[in-house]
Amino acid sequence: MVPIHRLQSVLKAAAHLITGICHGDHITLVLRQLHRLPVHPRVMFSIAGLLHQSLAGATPAYLADECRFLSDAGHHPLRSSLNDMRKLLIPPTHNTLGDRSFTTSGPRLCSDLPPGLRRPRLSFDSFKRSLKSHLFGD
After folding, report:
1. Angle in degrees, CA 77, 125, 131, rounded to 5
2. What integer best gives the mean pLDDT of the chain?
C-alpha cells in the first residue's frame, strides 16, 4: 500500500510538469486551477461516487447489498433527524482495517455529506459536480 503523501507528491510533480512553474512556487492554487483534488479528498470522491451508484442500483450486487438505510435495518430515526431519512447503517468494526472497508467508510462518508448531496433522485453527474465543489470548499 502506497502512503498518501507519496501519491500527493506525484500529483504535485505532474502539476509542475504540466504548468511549467518552478518547484519553489505554491502548488495549491495550480491544482485548483487544474481542477484536481488532493489525494485524500480524491479518495473520498471515489468512495462517495461508488456509494451513490450503489444506492441507485448501478453497481454489482455485492456492493449494493452492503449499503443499508437505517430505516431498512429496523432502526427508528430520532425526531431531530426526521427530515434526513437518507442515513445509512454504519456497522461496528473492531480494527483499523475494518474502518477502511467500503461497508464502513462509505456510510460514514455519506453521513458527513450535506443533505443536498444525499437527495434520493440526484443524477450521478449532478452528484459528482456538487461533491467536487463541496470537497474543494466552494
Report:
1. 55
2. 80
